[in-house]
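Entry 14. Structure prediction run on the chain below.
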Amino acid sequence: MRIVAVAAVLLSMAVSAQLVLPPAPSTDEVLDFLKTMPISAELKALFAPVLSAGLSTGRATPGVSLPFLRQIAALSPAQAEEVVWVIHHALDRGFITDPLMNDVLKVLQMGQPWEAVLTNLKIRYNLLGAAQQVLIQYRIVGVGPQGPGGPLLPQDRLVLEMAWAVGDFVISQPRESLEAFVRSRFVKLRGAVLDPGDVDRLLEALTAELVQQIAYRAYGP
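Output returned:
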């Protein structure tokens, strides 16, 4: 299996209890900023309704989307368009995209070369697609709305967390097996992030073959 990964960095900040946070941006602020970005009018016209739909359903949030767009607006137009296209495709397929956007911001802040930024984003996107395909194949999740405007379902979060678990395993390369790593991740998420019933059904069906299929489809031979 060909493994392409970007090193992960954990950041922590101590925040005073007295800190007053600014109000979260609105959807209109996000869409208004998109209009000012130095990318093609054609891409803006395609991305705006998809982003608007994603924001309305919670697949994207203004608090993540606006800092993301501001950061990539500082890139060259060609680089910004490459990133926007990936997010557009992810939203158009009904994926939750806040983690994708945050990942781009993290890798940019690490000062990684552009190739690493784009490679990491595309791999994370490929993992979402692979996780969805395999979980549907194993009948753990249904087909779902397959678009940004459909209702956000618990299975959407299940797909996201599976994709992220497999990707995190590849990045961290722990001594335990991929199946054990994924199983441990979902046990921790049970009841805290994911519905216990959904997690129990996943864990019952989880096998080494299932998670290896996801990795293989995302990373290739």
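The chain has a mean pLDDT of 90.
Filed with the rest of this week's runs.
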